[in-house]
Amino acid sequence: MEAMVRDVRQDLGMPNLLFIQVGLATGQGRFVDLVRKAQTAVRAPNLRYVDAKGLTVANDNTHLTTQAEVRLGAMLARGGATVSGRCQLTPTTSAQTLIHLAQCGKMNPAKISF
């Protein structure tokens, strides 16, 4: 992962480009713990780890449900805000409002209900 982050930043000429890595949500498969451990061990500047474990997994036992994806989106927005410090957005849609609230630390993604 470190090499990919370094190479993408170099290719784009953006040495401080933010990367947010999502930790596996599913508990299925014999290598899940190994992968999650490797994910949390990655170290690079401006790289954040957002853990999806505990979010609701769909019936396919692999992907998140729609509601869980929305929660994850808010978690990702908040993870990016810790680096960018952005809270000056003027939201124009419901999704942008959720992102804005998460970035400004005014919303707990776990409490979103549908």
UniProtKB/TrEMBL annotation:
Record InterPro entries: Carb_Esterase_6, SASA, SGNH_hydro_sf
Keyword S-adenosyl-L-methionine found: no
MF annotations from Gene Ontology: hydrolase activity
Domain of life per record: Eukaryota
Keyword terms, alphabetized: Hydrolase
Cross-referenced Pfam families: SASA
Domain Sialate O-acetylesterase residue range list: 1-78
PANTHER family per the UniProt record, alphabetical: ESTERASE, PUTATIVE (DUF303)-RELATED
Name of protein: Sialate O-acetylesterase domain-containing protein
Organism phylogeny: Eukaryota, Viridiplantae, Streptophyta, Embryophyta, Tracheophyta
